[in-house]
Amino acid sequence: MTTKANSSKENIEAIDWIEHIRSRPGMYLGSMNNRGFVGMLKYILSEIILNAKPDFIVIELHGQSRGELRFENIKNTVNDSLGVALKKAGRVFYEMQALNALSSHFQIRFFDSKGNKVLKQCFEKGKTIDGSIKNIELSCDIIEIEFSLDREIWKNEFEWNENYIDHEIRDYAYLHKRVKFEVRYKIDNEQCNVIYHFKNGLKDRLDIEKLNGLGGSYFQIFFEEKINDFAIEAAFAFKEYSVDEAFLKSYVNDSYTYENGTHVDGLLKGLIRGIIKYFQKNKLLDGLEISEDEIKEDLIAAIHVKIKEPVFCGSVKNKLANPEIVEPIANYIAKLFFEKMMEDETSAKKLTKKIEQIRWVAKRKNSR
């Protein structure tokens, strides 16, 4: 009797989460378009990278709204409830559940290292049609996911924007240097297979931007560090020549924060403190006030913070608002940058001269 009651309760819970997602898809995706899909996809990739630790991921797009995901060389065990909502599951994959519920067809297959199928589950609009969910840990080498977005939800006019998705996966790949990504799709019946693997992470991001027209640079610094209870990866440099287009990319937990936030505040404060300490040490420049604008004018940077409980300004999560990370980041970067300036006298002189020029231009503008 208890078993039947528990089974009925789980079925009710399953129906509840399916109907909730399907009736309010905007709550999960923000918008029912390629941007909303990619946001959901990135969360799915991040969760599986974090928990299963694959080193090769294939994203394949078919037709207007069908797709496949393949995760290879998995290092950790995974739970067979990957695509459904069970309260007793160890970690609930909300975005995977959303993709399941918003697809007319959704299938997960688990394979061992020899290519033998360990388990298969099929769903229609979130409801199981084949394969039981046992909520068990599986040892597997490959996970394959196939899905067809439900036209009832996504509407008939929806179709893949392959170039946009490709661009977004490329940007995402910089954040996971241990993973190789392959994006497959067709344009005008021509097959396109693109592989992204940036072994140096954000350092590669910065190097490529410099090759794309930002010109020469100095003080090229890259680091990865665990500070208190958060992790940070950053790459930054200063441009040899001023250009109109600035480059400052910031991320939190794999998501792009285009309005920046407290992680960028920490970066800028740290650079300012490091420069001021260098000026004090060498008795350079009158007045030790340096503004963020003076630093940002020639700065090119990318920063990624992984934090357990991020706080954002507003509901769109474009600006980080965790004040507790500002000082730890600033202190770390101030020490690092001061030491670099002391080591590299040539670059230190370039930066000093650049700040003098910025101040001279500003003084002339104010005197008019």
Highlighted features:
368 residues, alpha+beta, Heat Shock Protein 90, Ribosomal Protein S5, domain 2, five-stranded mixed β-sheet, 15 strands, 27% strand
Give structural notes.
- By secondary structure, the chain is an alpha+beta fold.
- The protein has 2 domains: 2-196, Heat Shock Protein 90; 202-367, Ribosomal Protein S5, domain 2, CATH 3.30.230.10.
- The protein has 11 helices and 15 strands.
- The chain has helices at residues 2-23, 25-29, 34-52, 94-101, 151-154, 162-173, 202-214, 262-282, 292-296, 326-343, 345-367, and strands at 56-62, 66-72, 78-79, 103-111, 117-124, 127-130, 137-138, 142-149, 180-187, 190-196, 217-227, 230-239, 247-252, 255-256, 299-306.
- The strands form 3 sheets. Strands 6-5-4-8-2-1-9-10 form an 8-stranded mixed beta sheet. Strands 11-12-15-13-14 form a 5-stranded mixed beta sheet, with helices on both faces.
- A hairpin with a 5-residue loop joins strand 4 (103-111) and strand 5.
- Helix 3 (34-52) runs parallel beside helix 6.
